[in-house]
Amino acid sequence: MKILLTGVTGYIGKRLLPVLLEQGHEVICCVRDKNRFDTSVFPGNVQTVEVDFLDQETLKNIPSEIDVAYFLIHSMATQSGDFLQMEAECATNFRNRMEKTNARQIIYLSGIVNSDHLSKHLDSRRNVERLLAGGQIPITTLRAGIIVGSGSASFEIIRDLVEKLPIMITPRWLHTKCQPIAIRNVIEFMIGVIDKPQTFNQSYDIGGPDILSYKEMLLQYAAERKLRRRIYVIPLMTPRLSSYWLYFVTSTSYNLAKNLVDSMKVEVICKPNHLAEELGIKLINYSASIQLAFQKIESDNVVSSWKDAQTSKILSGGLIRLLEVPSYGCFKDIRTASLHDSEASLTKIWSIGGNSGWYYGNWLWKIRGFMDQLVGGVGMRRGRKNKSDLAAGDALDFWRVLIADRKNKRLLLYAEMKLPGEAWLEFKIEDNTLVQTATFRPLGIAGRLYWYAVWPFHGFIFKGMINRIAHTN
Asked: In b/e form, how buried is each residue of 347-383, taking b as 16+ CB within 10 angstroms?
């Protein structure tokens, strides 16, 4: 069966793709930027087409021979534009293009909407569902609440809070009830409804067997991790303060924190249905979901992370425009070092950041990350999703991976921190010599002043880093 998969670089899409391929489907992946998506790591019949659903002209790249299409596009974490308008426009363009194909089913993952007073995020999901259902192609809508799995935004926020804070002073939305669902069950539902006529033009709430408050979820997580935690709920914390609280304590962005807080004030409990029984799906409880997530984390096998899919103004134009590192009008810090063991040094390069740190002056990197966070940047909180593997598009602390070519021994990073300009950091090994290049393209006088202000720190940070990478003993 030919299946169109949108949102393939997102958290759900990356989990869904390998399962579709395992089942023998031919999958056509829609991506805005082919440089962010490497199909060679997926065994099976998979191809990519470059599509921006806000640009109708690019929709012509979608082939007409399609049986089923997944719509997995959302913009809740976007830092540019109104995500309600963007999601509506994407849905309308997608629906119109699908009606010119042979598709006989659209599958959409939405949010549970069992209240008339919805958050901006859930209201947008409901609006997208209406737009898709207004077309000629039957739609199957699966509505989920909190998704629990390694790398999911909800799970990582819970993990950050409980692991970091022995005592929590929390907002009153922690008493809100929800029905979390394991990512494994979500994928089973999404696969199970493929080409099932009885699910056409139907919507289903999907959730696990437990109905819990957010406070209960935090405490159950603490119990699974054998951590003693105390939580005190106070009524004085406004939505804005709650958003800042999440932003500074967890790895989430402020935009995402704000939208999550709005959603967490609304109960998300499933309306009863028999879809799980009809599809033979055994629902996983919350405690077991946590255990499964940590099996992936501890085996260093996190398939996807919400951090890698996050939208930003910086990357809105795609990665391709950033791949060619500029030289004109730029400041550069170029250093070289002879290598005793190039493979060992390459391994250190591929393990840089996250828990491994930056090999020299880590406390200065952390201060720089904290300063970035104070002005609304991503800071150093994102880490990395895998200890030793990198791929184009991955988040790496406050960098984004542009090129991760291990065969040719080259790693190119682009800064996503708040800067008066643009910055690249490149590692390349040639003829047993490591070349480390930091490039900064300043924006106006402020950019030049910034470079000269940090230049003394670069002197020993970059020197210390290349020496640590080069000398592996």
From this structure: ebbbbbbbeebbbbbeeebeebbeebbeeebbbbbbb
Residue 420 has pLDDT above 80, yes or no: yes
- Contact criterion met (CB below 8 Å) for 318 and 32: yes
Which residue type occupies 374? L
pLDDT(241) > 50: yes
pTM: 0.76
Q: What are phi and psi of 423, to 5 degrees?
A: -135, 140
Question: First vs last Cα of the chain: how many Å apart?
Answer: 53
Tens of pLDDT along 74-132? 754 444 446 678 888 889 999 999 999 999 999 999 888 766 666 666 778 888 889 99
Q: How far is CA 120 from CA 123, 128, 233, 265, in A?
A: 5, 12, 24, 11
Region 454-459 average pLDDT = 86
Say if strands 395-396 and 26-31 run parallel, antiparallel, or are unpaired: unpaired
Least Cα distance to 10 among 57, 72, 64 occurs for 72
Among positive and negative, which fits the CA dihedral 393, 394, 399, 404?
negative
Whole-number Cα distances in Å, 5 to 21, 62, 68:
12, 11, 9
